[in-house]
Amino acid sequence: MDLWYFEKEATQKGYKAIAGIDEAGRGPLAGPVVSAAVILPTAFHDPDITDSKKLSPQKRERLFAIIYARAVSVGIGIVDPVVIDRINILQASLLAMAMAVKNLAPQPDHLLIDGTFPIPSDLSQQPIPKGDALSISIAAASIIAKVSRDHLMQKYHHYYPQFDFPQHKGYPTRAHKEAIRKFGCCPIHRRSFKGVKEYI
Prior knowledge:
This protein is an alpha/beta fold. The chain has one domain (about 5-160): Ribonuclease H-like superfamily/Ribonuclease H (Nucleotidyltransferase, domain 5, 2-Layer Sandwich), CATH 3.30.420. It is about 40% helix and about 15% strand. It has seven helices and five strands. Helix 3 packs across helix 4 (about 90-100).
């Protein structure tokens, strides 16, 4: 399988700067949704790059540093739980993706987006279901988004240690749900989500 297939296809159509976009954190009960947009140089190659969910935390951290060092540009978009509760997680994810694209410099002229939905942007774009396993640019963005979000959740631990966010990153594990039952919710919990709203 050629992970450059969609990038090559876009290049053949005349696009010069192609960005892959992905998000991390749609499923958790706490914390922001974080998106990343990545433009890779055409000579970029690393055999370990794939969907971030298939990688160990150690490999993700190593690839995170490599991608940041070698990418043409990396953009991050973060939407916090207050906005997630207001506009819903799908719209928040798409908003975070659009923010990530706006934070790229130089700006891309074509977007490869993980999933089935276009994002709010006037740029040429192509949603690709399971794109994080099919496009190297999206796979790189999935790694950046996942590691960036994990780092944020580790920082939140200093403020809310009772929830042990470094262990589950806000996802609905048994330990996390038990902590919510015991301590209630904290300011970064998503109050519209089942598993949280019952304890407000």
